[in-house]
Amino acid sequence: MTMKYNYKDLGLSNTKEMFKHANENGYAVPAFNFNNMEMMQAIVEGCAEMGSPVILQCSTGARTYMGKETVPMLAMAAVKIARSMGSDIPIALHLDHGPSLEAIKDCIDYGFSSVMIDGSHYDFEKNIAISKEAAEYAHKFDVTVEAELGVLAGVEDDVVADEHVFTQPEEVEEFVSRTGVDSLAIAIGTSHGAHKFKPGTDPKLKHEILSEIETKIPGFPIVLHGSSAVPQEFVATIKEFGGELKDAIGIPDSELRGATKSAVAKINVDTDGRLAFTAGVREVFGTKPGEFDPRKYLGNGKSKMKNYYKTKIANVFGSEGAYKKGTM
Q1: Is the entire prediction scored with pTM above 0.90?
Q2: Catalytic residue list contains 96
Q3: Which of 16, 22, 223, 321 has its CA 20 to 30 A from that of 177?
Q4: Average pLDDT, rounded, for the chain
């Protein structure tokens, strides 16, 4: 098979060394989703300025929206931006919630350095079978593979689940050894989407499940999905300038910071970036109704998203300064 783009030619890294470095140094690699150029810029500029490694995440829906030819070019541009800033942060391009082996093969062919196969909605044996097949295929191209065990409630792109099924610690060892995957997403109380938890509740992670999983597969990279905090400042700005959002709260930063000091090597954040970006755009529309230059309103969205992620890198991921910092 001739690959359209080899991720190494694009300057990208897979996640193997990233996760090893993260686990050895007690931090987690931020995995931020992007849907357009400005979001990519916000993510890579923020991470380069902070000296944090980053995983640029792209869902199948985002890939369809941007176009499969566009995504690898944006990822290559991200690497060039970081290097032009004088930063040596590693950057991965990761398929978030890969729905099928066909999707994974196509992404590898188009320069993705890391993929997720999501068989969490299948029974244990079928999840193992599809995850093993994905790992065997991806490893031929030195692409790293993430699988998921357990089910997160909430909505993300085409992934819908009504209830949590917490990861069973007694299953992880068999799952990892039989599939050969490189990292494992687990369900310990996080949730997809913006409307995670009702105000007045106190979202807590099941740290005891995480601890037990660590003892079963010591040193193995663990991934947390659905880990946005749903910052109320952005919710308030969106509402102030005409937006409609149901009241919701996310996972407290303190809960996540505790997890990053353990085996959690990667934390996925999507909703927070969307909220920050949307708040920036709505702010311009609300305060300058005559503005029709996309650079002005998209630029404000980018700025809000970047600044928020910089604080999150420092306060939650603990990844600041893991690599050489860059300057704009």
Answers
A1: yes
A2: yes
A3: 22
A4: 92
